[in-house]
Design goal:
The longest helix has 14 residues. A seven-stranded mixed sheet has the order 3-2-1-4-5-7-6, with helices on both faces. α3 runs antiparallel to α5, α4 packs across α5 and α9 crosses α11. With 279 residues, it is α/β, with parallel strands linked by helices. The protein is globular, with a radius of gyration of 17 Å. β1, α5 and β2 form a beta-alpha-beta unit. The model has no long low-confidence stretch (mean pLDDT 96). The structure holds S-adenosylmethionine. The site of S-adenosylmethionine (SAM) has 25 residues, from α1 and α5.
């Protein structure tokens, strides 16, 4: 398992990321210029459909002011900053990649949200929090990097309050498709060695078995296809996730678009309620 985590960490190693971000953000003005989560969205929302998807998931999950939210696999922190700014909640992000966590802290300094949003380097399989600490847990485009789904969903259930919400936005295996049919390199894995896509049915089964009741179950593939077609027609505005993932990002994004348009993967939004432990 450590080997797999190390390989996933390597995929998101992003050497010199904070310095690259500083240079890329110079287009928005000097270092002391306050930035907004919306302005950063082309480079800090690391998932299909970007900011629109985060906004929809927050609404589906019912995130409101005063809640304590955990973003698991928080990347460079775009979803956490957006949620804090629009819902008025406190957000903690955890991510396996230390350079991503450094970058998330830097960007949060640039948006002036340090009192509301914080980040830790940690594995989703060993969350550094007491049981029952959060009202809501978010997981966006992370599960496909994790083979031990029972443990992932059990950890998420452990840190949630009873009755709390778990909102996930996930890449899953397209119906009737096989793992062999997925095009790589993809944004979440350059080879199949760190890609652990499940079908929609297997995803739901694994989450419910960890102590959750399904509230929302939504196939977002149609909207994802429109987004993928647009991505093919025109490259994303600059600065974009190429700053985070490096020069092969156009190829990674191109393969994501192909996988979505050819139904090799599907895009799923779901919200679950935390059942009583041992229920
Ligand atoms: C595609 S990015 C999504 C980032 C963020 N959720 C977003 O939507 O902007 C996947 C993220 O999951 C993180 N990740 C992968 N496996 C992880 C694990 N076992 N524990 C914590 N983070 C993990 C990666 O480091 C990366 O930041």
């Amino acid at each position: 398992m450590t080997d797999v985590l190390d390989t996933v960490r390597d995929h998101y190693r992003a050497t010199g990321l904070t310095e690259r971000l500083k240079a890329a953000l110079a287009v928005f003005g000097p270092e002391d210029q306050r930035l907004t989560p919306e302005l950063l969205a082309t480079l800090d929302q690391f998932h299909t459909r970007g900011l629109a998807a985060t906004a929809e998931l927050a609404k589906l999950a019912g995130v409101t002011s005063g809640m304590s939210v955990l973003d698991v696999g928080s990347g460079v922190g775009g979803p956490a900053r957006y949620l804090a700014a629009t819902c008025g909640c406190q957000v903690t992000g955890v991510d396996l990649s230390a350079p991503f966590v450094d970058a998330a802290r830097y960007l949060t300094g640039r948006t002036g949200q340090g009192a509301q949003v914080s980040f830790k380097t940690a594995s989703a399989l060993e969350l550094p929090f007491d049981a029952g600490r959060f009202d809501t847990v978010l997981l966006q485009h992370v599960a496909m990097n994790i083979s031990d789904r029972p443990r992932l969903y059990r950890e998420i259930r452990r840190v949630l309050k009873q009755g709390g919400r778990f909102a996930t936005y996930d890449v899953v295996l397209g119906s009737g498709k096989t793992l062999d049919g997925v095009h790589y390199p993809a944004p979440w894995a350059r080879t199949p060695a760190t890609s652990f896509l499940l079908t929609v049915e297997a995803t739901r089964e694994a989450v419910e078995a960890a102590g959750f009741r399904t509230l929302v179950w939504q196939d977002d593939s149609t909207a994802a296809k429109a987004w993928a077609a647009q991505l093919r027609a025109a490259p994303p505005a600059s600065p974009n996730l190429g700053v985070v993932m490096g020069p092969d990002f156009a190829q990674l994004g191109g393969n994501l678009a192909r996988n979505i348009l050819e139904d090799r993967v599907a895009i799923l939004s779901a919200v679950f309620e935390a059942s009583p432990i041992n229920a």
